[in-house]
Each structure stands twice: as structure tokens, then as C-alpha cells.
Amino acid sequence: MMFTNLDDQNQPYSCTQWGNRHVQWGDEHAVITNDNGMTIFSWFNSNNGMPSIAYIDHTMTVDYMSNYTGGANTAINRINNLLNDCGELCSSEPILGCTDEFACNFNENSDEDDGSCEYESCLGCTDSTANNYDEDASIDDGSCVYASSMSFGQIDDSSIEINFSSDYPIQGFQFTLTDNPDQITLTGAYGGVAEENGFTVSTSELGIVLGFSFSGDLIPAGEGILTTLTYDGIGPSEVCFDEIILSDSSGSQISTGPTDCYMLDLIANPGDTNLDQNINVQDIVILLNFILEFEEPTQQQFVNGDMNDDQILNVLDVIRIVNSILGLSRQDLNTSQNNFGILNYTISGNDLILSIYSEIDYSGVQLSFNSYQNHEITLKDNSHITLRQNFTDGKKILVAYSMFNKVFDGHEAVFTIVGGSNLNIDDLDILVGDLNGNAINLYLNEVDESDLNKYTFNINSVYPNPFNPNTDISFTIPNDGYVKLSVFNIKGQEVDVIFEGYQDKGFHSYTWDASTFSSGIYYFHLNEGKNISTAKGIYIK
Length: 541
Fold this sequence. Notes:
This protein is mainly β and 541 residues long. It folds into four domains: 15-89, no CATH class; 148-264, Immunoglobulin-like; 281-450, Immunoglobulin-like, CATH 2.60.40; 455-539, Immunoglobulin-like (Sandwich). It is 12% helix and 38% strand. The protein has helices at 15-24, 39-43, 72-84, 192-196, 281-291, 299-305, 315-326, and strands spanning 53-56, 62-66, 96-97, 112-113, 123-124, 139-140, 148-155, 159-166, 172-180, 184-190, 200-203, 208-212, 222-233, 237-247, 253-254, 261-264, 340-348, 351-357, 362-370, 377-379, 386-392, 395-401, 412-417, 429-434, 441-446, 458-463, 470-477, 481-488, 494-503, 506-513, 520-528, 531-539. Strands 9, 11, 12, 14, 15 and 16 form a six-stranded antiparallel sheet that branches. It has a five-stranded mixed sheet with strand order 20-23-18-17-25, with no helix packed on it. α5 (281-291) runs antiparallel to α7 (315-326). The longest helix is centred in the N-terminal third of the chain and has 13 residues, at 72-84. The chain starts with 14 loop residues before the first helix and ends with a strand.
């Protein structure tokens, strides 16, 4: 059984009363299930003025109330009586009139247009604040004339010009700038006719702008730049005027016409993350602090730091800022359509070892993962690569990059996450950037730990060969120890030392830059005590 309690006896009942009465009493549903007894029946009787049967006509007025239907025939007769008395609702003839809701003589009861619509008698200015307000007009025809107006002038990444026009001198002004979504904050005001005439202009973080003169000076009637507002923040955000009040010398409000809006979208200065209008190493440091979550960027800093416009700050942006500082354009750097590499990973004791290899030159790596402990991360070889890392709020972040956009030795970067054997490789976010600051796609490859212990003492490859001017020398050593990798000419003279020092067992790779040497044949020597391995390379300019 479904019912709605109408305890308001006023006539006629509204649709709201019928449909929402249960809500007024805090009941979500207007449904009560009969308990097969007389409980519900006892609630409704003629004694309380709310019987169980009510007949209501099309005007929501009660026609008859009773505790009993009196039988089916009685109910049918009462319903027929209501239908016979339904007036125009039951008429088969259409109701003629003007059905255009924009016409002056629109008839909302008409269901068929009789061609009587007329549009001129009610047209005019319907704004009571306008100079030519027409109190007889019901439809605005856009003819309103106002004594003053405000609009946006020039807008850049830090300021907004406010233009004005007024038929009367201005004693004071107040307005609010709204922005949707909320992206900008007003920080001050300067210039314009307000400053020329000794006005003090104040702003608030809520977007309120207030201007007046302590000495009683006036802004003359006319038009021009009222003032220039300064702001922090970025778009895209729609900036609009709201609640404009212009006062004349008598304290009366000057009527103001409709205002416009402006879609503010901040113009970025790519790379200038510290907002000093210069691009240098300080911007790299600041950007790294944002990436490593040491600091939170402002909206302007985020826009400037997002060098590739992907809405993320990461090592790809670092590489691009480095290129910008060094004056390297994308055309200056080698690129490839096959931008992919291989991520070899293995568990060694309690450590997780990651080896990133790509034939594409790359100069930056970013690694992050969630963990309950701060794992130390080390990089094998590649002494020219800068390593920065942070652990905050259960998240480990590492950025490895070259300050001079030099590639990783041998196109390989080997990272060891100390104590990371319990980490899941799928939970690691690894980003590798080529020399242009483009991401390199990585393919996963799991390596057996036993393979790590099968190294022999040997120079494995010189690639490319012949080369100009760089080549990678890859070698393996079976034990930890002191090694020296050097270069000899065809006369047997040592002309360069690529690496000399302690090395862990395993695979190593170094890049030799021969740009300062002459073309010819060179020999690469790997020495470890009594062990020597040699390989030949050809340098062709």
C-alpha cells in the first residue's frame, strides 16, 4: 500500500504537498507495507478529517472524502462526474492563441497558434539602471544606454589592464574580479587615470578592487585605462567583472552597462623555474627540487618547468632545460624513430639490480617507487652523471642526468637498489630520456642471478667501429679489483686513459671521445695485474 499523508487541509492541494509531504517529515520513502491487520485503516477515519478515500479533481481540489468506496458503481459514478466537469481539459477543440514564448502576447494555455503573435509593443530596454529604461517593456531589445562601462584591456602573464568609459566624473569605484576555475590571485594595482588623479587602489585575495581619493580628487569624465592589476597564477581561467559600483561626486551610483569576460591562459617562459627571467643552472636545481618533491612549485613555476607540455615535471624537462642552456636545438642532436631500450633486472642477494640499455643515446633516467624504507640507490660507472634522490612520504625518487647532456657510458646504466629484493618490478616507475628530452620505451627482461657470476676478463666490444668521434668500449671482469682502460696509437704510445681505478666484477662500459685526436688506428688496452685484453678501433673524421 502506498500513500502520502496530507495533514494540511487547505484547498486546493499542490503537487508539492502530494509528492513531497513524506520528505518534510524526514522519511525517505512514501511507501508503507500493510501488516495484514487494521493498523493502517485505523489511521484514516472521518473523525480526524482524513478518511481513507478521497476524490480529487484536476485542480488538486478534494471533491469527496469517505472511509468507504460505497461499492464499485459508486466509485465509477463519482469519477465520471469529475470527468464531466473538467472544462477545457476535456474539450476536443484546440485552444487558439499565440504560442511563441518570445512574443509580447504569448498565451501559455494555447496549444495551436492562431497567427496573432506580435513583437513590438513590449520591446525596449528592460534594465532599470539604464538611462533609457522602459517600464512598459517586457522583452529587452538590446537598446539600453548606460552612463559608464568597464572592460578588459591588455592582459599578460602578470597584469590586467582595466579600461573604463564614463559620462560623469568618478569619485570612487569598486568591483570584483571572479575567475572560474579559481586560478589567480590579485596582488596589487598601479598606473592609469586612478594613479594620475591621486586615487589609492587596493586589492584583496578575494578579487575585490577598491579605489578612492583621500583628498577628494575626481577622475574626469571620459575613457581610458582606469588602473592595471597585478596577479599571480595561471589559466586557463575565465576572468569576469562582478558587482561594479561607480560613484559620482554626490555619492550617487553611475549606471554601468553589461561587462565582458576574458579567457586568461598564462604565457609560459620555458625553463625559467625560479622566475628571474634567466635560464641557467639555478633553474635546473629548482626543477630537480620539484621533481624530487623537496619543494612544491607555484603554478607559474610549473608552467615554466613543463618544457614538453605534458603536464608533468620529470627528467625529460631537465634534459630540455640543459639543452636550452647549452644552446642545443633539437636539430643539433641525433634522434631515431626506433626509440626503445631494454631493462634487464635481477635479484642479487638482498639487492635489486636494474640494467638499462639502448642503442639510442640517452642522458637522463628517473626512477621512483613506494616503499616503507629509504633504499640507497647506486649507479655503476658513469662518473659524469649527476645523481640526486629523495625519500618522502613513503616514496623513493631518483633522478640521474648529465649537466652537459652527455650520454651514459656504453649506452648502459646499471642501478643497484640496496635491499630492494622485495620490490616488484611492475611497481617501479622508470623513465629514460634521449638527448632531445623524448621518452625511450623500455622492454622488460628478467636475468638469472647465476649469469652475473659467469664473467671473464675481456674487452667485449668497441661500438661503433669505425667511429667519429665517440665509441663505447665494453668489458667484463670476473673479480673485484683495480683495472686500467687506456688508449694507444700505432706507435705503441699511450695517448689517453679512459678509466683507472677500482671496479666491481661484472659488465662495464665507457665512452671515448676522440674529437681532439687525429684520424687513424687506435688500440684499447684493459689491464688488471697480469691480465691484459686488447681491441682495435678506427677513427675516421
